């Protein structure tokens, strides 16, 4: 069974600074997706960024970028120029492509990100 | 606008009562999912369905039931057999096969057992 581990229950960063959230995963699959979702206080799950495992290039979305290390099974999220609106729970998630990804995503337990003004 | 609608947003239930949470999507997605979220636990899969009239148990299906009579609808019933039903419930949908990717989520339903 696949597992996703987020080792930082809570992180704090000053506004405008950079913060990195860690995620590791365990799988025997070679073809899969990885995701970072954001859950603000409204509790709506919002996709931040996604990475296809076959792509060596790290995904980037504006101030959000990932460091994908396939051999190490590591998938960290870097948030640059942190803003107050970035405060939220962040979940790392994994989805295999085998079986069409039938059983959805496997999530980590989340990291609570606090932005200090 | 396309999306996923969950209702009700807040629900209170007395012990011993069944309750049904609604989930409707107009994204034309084949696959639908129910997750449960508890503090410090992340999201855990309850049930999922890839096509109409077919569904599979997830990691924590005990005490829950679902149906999938229409492509756009995937209601979840929390039965009296669920020992600790107070939680936040999220419904999601996605494409299937090689096009599969992220899940799209509803806004969630908060169930409190009194």
Q: Structural class, from helix and strand content of chain A?
A: mainly beta
Secondary structure: number of strands of chain B = 11
State which percent range the strand residues of chain B make up.
over 45%
Instruction: Report the major sheet of chain B.
Output: 7 strands, mixed
Spatial separation of the terminal alpha carbons of chain A? 41 Å
Low-confidence stretches of chain B: none
DSSP strand count of chain A: 12
Number of helices of chain B: 0
Condensed summary:
Chain A is an all-beta fold and 117 residues long. In chain A, 0% of the residues lie in helices and 51% in strands. In chain A, strands 2, 5, 6, 10, 11 and 12 form a 6-stranded mixed β-sheet that branches. Chain A has a 4-stranded antiparallel β-sheet with strand order 3-9-8-7, with no helix packed on it.
Describe this structure in words.
The complex is a heterodimer of chains A (117) and B (114). Chain A is globular and about 45 Å long. Chain A has strands spanning 3-5, 10-14, 19-21, 24-26, 32-39, 46-52, 60-61, 64-69, 74-79, 88-96, 106-107, 111-116. Helices cover 0% and strands 51% of the residues of chain A. Chain B has 114 residues and is mainly beta. Chain B is built from no helices and eleven strands. In chain B, the strands form two sheets. In chain B, strands 2, 4, 5, 6, 9, 10 and 11 form a seven-stranded mixed beta sheet that branches. Chain B is globular, with a radius of gyration of 13 Å. Classes of the chains: A mainly beta (117), B mainly beta (114).
Q: What would the keywords be for this entry?
A:
heterodimer, A: 117 residues, 12 strands, B: 114 residues, mainly beta, four-stranded antiparallel β-sheet
Topology:
The complex is a heterodimer of chains A (117) and B (114).
Chain A: E1 3-5, E2 10-14, E3 19-21, E4 24-26, E5 32-39, E6 46-52, E7 60-61, E8 64-69, E9 74-79, E10 88-96, E11 106-107, E12 111-116
Parallel strand pairs in A: 2-12
Antiparallel strand pairs in A: 1-4, 3-9, 5-6, 5-10, 7-8, 8-9, 10-11, 10-12
Chain B: E1 4-7, E2 10-13, E3 19-25, E4 31-38, E5 42-51, E6 54-57, E7 64-66, E8 76-78, E9 87-94, E10 104-105, E11 109-113
Parallel strand pairs in B: 2-11
Antiparallel strand pairs in B: 1-3, 3-8, 4-5, 4-9, 5-6, 7-8, 9-10, 9-11
């Amino acid at each position: 069974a696949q597992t996703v581990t987020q080792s930082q229950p809570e992180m704090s960063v000053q506004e405008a600074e950079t913060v990195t959230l860690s995620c590791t995963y365990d799988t025997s699959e070679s073809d899969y997706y990885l995701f970072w979702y954001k859950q603000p206080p409204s509790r709506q799950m919002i996709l931040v960024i996604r990475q296809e495992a076959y792509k060596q290039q790290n995904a980037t979305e504006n101030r959000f970028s990932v460091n994908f290390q396939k051999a190490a099974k590591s998938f960290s999220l870097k948030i640059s120029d942190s803003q107050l609106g970035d405060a939220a729970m962040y979940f790392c998630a994994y989805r295999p492509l085998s079986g069409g990804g039938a059983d959805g995503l496997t999530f980590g337990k989340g990291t609570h990100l606090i932005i200090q003004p | 606008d396309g999306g996923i609608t969950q209702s009700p947003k807040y629900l209170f239930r007395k012990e011993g009562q069944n309750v049904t949470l609604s989930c409707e999507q107009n994204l034309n997605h084949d696959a639908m999912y129910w997750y449960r979220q508890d503090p410090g636990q992340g999201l855990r899969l309850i049930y999922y369905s890839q096509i109409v009239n077919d569904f599979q148990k997830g990691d924590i299906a005990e005490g829950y039931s679902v149906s999938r009579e229409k492509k756009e609808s995937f209601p979840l019933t929390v039965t009296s057999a669920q020992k600790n039903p107070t939680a936040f419930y999220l419904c999601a949908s996605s494409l299937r096969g090689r096009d599969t990717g992220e899940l799209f989520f509803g806004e969630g339903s908060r169930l409190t057992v009194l």
